[in-house]
Design goal:
GNAT_dom; Aminopeptidase; Acyl_CoA_acyltransferase; Acetyltransferase; alpha+beta; single chain
């Protein structure tokens, strides 16, 4: 056997690894039906000024991305997007939420919304921090 080490991951190689992991996981995980969740806010021209991307899976809401355009910040748009995601997740049967954020992003925002830090990755990627939060919905 030989190791192949690369900094250029080919799509077909990623698919092989992903499919192998997916097959293993699906044979063992209780809930095999994650559902995407996208919530978008558009201005009067139809341009997206904010949004949340994540998914629900079993008991959990996972918030992958939450973004508000810079000129729209401070108007509680992020709070409204997060609240809508939590409400939708509860409707889907979720009991908990999970997300991560960097020290230069929004840890205080999530704490204000009831999220608890469960782990902090120090010196990430070099001098910052990456926070992992959960919340009971």
């Amino acid at each position: 056997m030989n190791f192949e080490i690369t900094d250029k991951i080919k799509e077909q190689d990623e698919k092989i690894i992903y499919q192998g992991l997916l097959e293993y996981n699906l044979a063992r995980i209780e809930d095999k039906n994650p559902r995407d969740l996208g919530i978008y806010l558009q201005d009067e021209t139809g341009e997206k000024v904010g949004g949340l991307i994540g998914n629900t899976h079993g008991n959990w809401l996972f918030v992958k991305y939450l973004w508000v355009r810079e000129d729209q910040r401070g108007q509680k748009i992020g709070s409204a997007l997060l609240k809508q995601a939590e409400e939708t997740a509860k409707e889907r049967g979720c009991r908990y939420a999970f997300l991560d954020t960097f020290s230069f992003q929004a840890p205080a925002f999530y704490e204000k919304h009831g999220y608890m830090s469960v782990f902090t990755l120090e010196e990430y990627p070099v001098t910052g921090k990456r926070y992992y939060f959960t919340k009971t919905l």
